[in-house]
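$ run holo --ligand "magnesium ion" --emit tokens
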Amino acid sequence: MVSKATFSNLQRSAKDLVNRSLDRHVRLAVTGLSRSGKTAFITALVDHLLQGPVHHQLPLWSVAREGRFLGAKKVPQAHFHIPSFKFEQNIKSLRADTPSWPVPTAGVSEIRLKIKYRPDSLLWRNISQTAELTLDIIDYPGEWLLDLPLLQMTYEQWSEQMAQTLTQPGRAELAKNWLNLGAQLELHGAYDELQIAQISQAYTDYLHQCKAQLGLHHIQPGRFVLPGELEGAPLLAFFPYVWGELNGQGQEDKDSAFNMLKARFEQYKEHVVKRFYQQHFVHFDRQIVLLDCLTPLNAGRQSFEDMQMAIEQIMQSFQYGQSGLLRRLFAPKIDRIVFAASKADHVTPDQHENLLALVDKIIVNGQREVAFSGIESHCIALAAVKSTQAGKVDYQGKPHAALTGRQLDTSEMISLYPGEVPADLPQAKFWQEQGFDFTNFAPPVVASNLPLPHIRMDLAIEHLLGDKLL
Ligand SMILES: Nc1nc2c(ncn2[C@@H]2O[C@H](COP(=O)(O)OP(=O)(O)OP(=O)(O)O)[C@@H](O)[C@H]2O)c(=O)[nH]1
Ligand SMILES: [Mg+2]
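-- output --
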């Protein structure tokens, strides 16, 4: 006969065994272009998990729906050299009496949670009534993924490509100062560090202007506008040569400006681009890519097409089939991606289907490749913090779908119909009519004991973590 103590020892070792054999740890990466809603998404996600099972409003997350979600707590993060995600600060501003959105972020940060749940699987339940999953959530700028193609380019090829982008509307005008300063650069002869620094600064200013004035995201090198911890580092003091053909001037001269620019470009590839993939990307298990399609729809054709190009580019980081560049360099392990149209509360619910169809069209080519790499992908439309109420307003005697919320700039309550989202990539007619009117809303006032209102955050959690909590 087995004694009580022996039985409990047996039970403990069986639990250890199952614990080790099951994947108890997930690194979930959250990315998207600037202002796509990454920080709001992570803050809302963590808040929902920390609120626990009592008031949850997450019916599409099977673990919560089945009553198996037992709670979550924040624990010290895995890597102390990586900045912490500022959850407390963000949630304080979102849950203030006069709520405000979290401040913009410019680099990578992480936060760790332990989720407690009741297992569904029979095997596990016979051993233990509860189980834990360690969840690391990592926030990083999607712009950093735009640098991947640099790994396959020489300085000369990159310069040529950047010279071509100057023909796009509005770019050359913004580049004037940089182009004037750079025109004085001698490629051979000993280089002047001060001159290089000045031209690099003018190039960086130009990239910032492209972002701010033209609403562009497809900007290279990505770290020039989002340097993170590299702010001010000499590694970022270079620029493409666009003042004529590069046919070897200065090559033979060790200290020439040409050799220095080329060397810094190579160092950028090695120490910035590759290092991000090696230190962070290869360790991600799950990925959500947030897409704000609505701001570019408002901003106009160039901004929209640029966003589309940037997203296609970003998707290349997830296309690591056998011949993929990434597979050859590293061994990434993301096995599931969610593409999410963010801020869906900016359009009336009847437009959600169109929004989803539009995202589908933007990612369709890349998604095929992603599937070929063996990655499961899902596409959803969500709002991390729902800031509007959908309803009807009377217009010329007829009821019309409308949204009501507090306008961000004026703090006034307004009701409006923002327009129809095209279900397909917008054609010339759409831009001529400019039928879309996007307004930023302030976050809603929410009682401290209630969860933040949202749209389909639970579906995002289900797609990202559902299978890890069986
Ligand atoms: N209405 C609404 N607005 C949102 C939502 N999420 C984000 N926003 C808006 O989008 C802005 C950017 O959101 P963030 O979460 O800071 O986006 P981010 O991607 O972290 O931005 P960066 O850190 O600058 O790259 C916010 O300040 C809000 O105005 C949402 O769910 N609903
Ligand atoms: Mg952010």
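-- notes --
Strands lie at 25-32, 69-75, 109-117, 131-139, 286-291, 336-341, 376-381, 388-395, 398-406, 413-416.
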